[in-house]
Amino acid sequence: TMPKEPAVLRQNILDTTAAILACGIDPKKCFLFRQSLVPEHAELAWIFGCLTNAPRLLRLPQWKMKRASQNSEGTVGLLTYPVLQAADILLYKSTRVPVGEDQVLHLELAQDIAQHFNKKYGEFFPVPKAILSEL
Fold first, then answer.
1. In angstroms, what CA-CA distances link 36 with 5, 40, 48, 71, 75?
2. 73 pLDDT more than 80
3. CA nearest to 100, candidates 126, 134, 69
4. Which of 24, 79, 114, 134 could cross-link with 125 by S-S, CB 3.0 to 4.6 Å?
5. Contact 97, 130 (CB under 8 A)
6. Quick one: signal sequence residues (predicted)?
7. Contact present, 51 and 113 (Cβ < 8 Å)
8. 94-133 burial, b if ≥16 CB within 10 A, otherwise e?
9. What pLDDT digit, counting tens, does each position of 87-111 carry?
């Protein structure tokens, strides 16, 4: 949600990939891809954004905290980031999502979006449930 220099962004992508592989993720057993190369993420986020009202997003505590830490009114990208997260989850019809306590409200938004979409257009997206770690 913050502008990055292209060279820094490219290096961050490589560093993140290396860290994921160093953690033991086996690319022979899972899919590892760069989200920005899959246009359906942004396309579904746009559709979901058209189904989500702004007051709901403005009430999210993460929006309030990050906006305050940026000492500004915040950007549209920051405001709508939870909608993109919902698209990331629902695009793959996820049923269980590992989240930290700080992301429970964002998952609840994804659940609400799935339910709203299904009610309006017919059953399509499963409503994902949280997997919370005790750690």
1. 16, 9, 18, 28, 20
2. no
3. 134
4. 114
5. yes
6. none
7. yes
8. eeebebeeebeebbebbbebbeebeeeeeeebeebebeee
9. 999 999 999 999 988 889 999 999 9
d(CA 29, CA 25): 8
Apex CA 38: angle with CA 32 and CA 40, to 5°? 130
Residue with tokens 């979006």: 113
- 105 touches 60 (CB < 8 A): yes
Full 3-state SS string of 55-75: HHHHCCHHHHHHHHHCCCCCC
Phi/psi of residue 38, nearest 5 degrees: -110, 95
Residue 81 · residue 74 · CB < 8 Å:
no
Give the tokens for residue 114. Answer: 């799935």
CATH topology for 35-132 is: Rossmann fold (3.40.50)
Alpha helices in 1-94 (DSSP H): 6-22, 39-49, 54-58, 61-69, 76-90
pTM, rounded to two decimals: 0.86
**Which two three-digit tokens encode residue 41?**
């993420």
